[in-house]
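Q: Here's a chain of 467 amino acids. Please give me its 3D structure as tokens.
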Amino acid sequence: MDRHSFLKWTGIILFIIGLILIMSWPKILYYILTKGMILSHGSKVYEMWSKPPVPINMDVYLFNYTNPGQLKEKDYKPHLVQMGPYRFREFHEKVDVVFNENHTVTYRQVRRWYHDAENSNGSLKDNVTTLNVLPIAASAVSRHWSGVLVYPLSAALSVASRSLWLTRPVSEMLFDGYSDPLLSIASNIPGISALELPGDRIGFFYGRNGSAEFDGVFNMETGAADISRLGEMRCWNYLNDSKLYEGECGRITGFAGELFPPGQTKNRPLKVFAVDLCRWVLFDFVEEVEVNDILGYRYALSKTFLDNGTRNPDTECNCGGTCLPQGALNVSTCRKGAPAFASYPHFLDADPYYTRNVQGLSPDPEKHRFHLTIEPSASERAHHDVSDDVVRGTSDYLAGAVGVPEDGAEATSHRDHLLCVSPAARSRPLGIRFSATRRPPSTEERSILKLYEESNKSSNSFLKEDC
């Protein structure tokens, strides 16, 4: 073979090899990407998942009742004034992590919060007036009791709780908790003891800071068997059905919310498991957006989420035993029967019944939508917020409504939300916004991380089995 023929055939062979590489490169890249995303002990994904280095900014808003003295007046409507935000830095850590032979991982989750006074609007010493949740919860639980059982409960309530309202500092409403005489006798009252009230104090986050028990036991896919199921919940508290909701609503499914499989498409909705709701929620694709110069798919909470079967008969399981007017989700079964409901902030898109019976709410679609944005190729969460809207039921109106205005450390024009709801038995009505952004930690955050490391304590329990 002469020199000319050799160069010609060499060129043809190199061209064919290059063409093959060009055609197969996306598959090669996807293979490399997916292998790097499998959750395994010691991997980079594991490091980011088990102890995220960047804290979440949690902004808490509360509603102050300004006219509780008018409760007995005809056509009374609660007047609410929003307070906050009270900002906290939230750190997550996975503990008791066990990788199972069936390519799942079992773990508990610890969350820690540190107050960020500099970026808060108000002091934790601010007083807030709101509903006295204990007698209201007791009344709700006993509403179908016979008169023989109701009488001693009424007597106990009249002695222990003198009013449907109470005024406490924000610090006590949130993490410090406050004492209540009803707590000391609640364990001896049939039906009320089933609420599993704490024995000494109550507050929205009381007992949760640093707890490895509160959120329960998670079991999810690692992606080793099927990368398309990475981060997908298989069981919660060793059950694949919570039995707290009927039908599909009670099934444990959806992504745990921190890991998503690569290759997310626009026509595939996202299911996310919300532990504070004891169930999954559905997100539908809305549009492409840019978050910190990263292309993302923006998903909105599905319209079926707060449907009571009116629009879609399949969503009647959202009622949780009691169907409310459109726009509020009954999650009382998730709270041992204590009255707890979830809605969009300020009752956005809800039946006018709600806003007619409460003053001071200003629903705004630009602020109060719930969204989740992910990077589609690697399906990393590019930006999210979590909002909380809780209402409490009394007589002929729902009180304790919560509002969550838009805010964040690096707010964009996109409002990203993920719903959660507070535990009724341990909480007060309030609104919460979680804002997370992908960026290196600042000097201040490094100091908080150092404090976090020093205070880090692992749970004593050890998980040995999956579900």
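Q: Can you summarize the key feature?
A: The longest strand covers residues 80-99.
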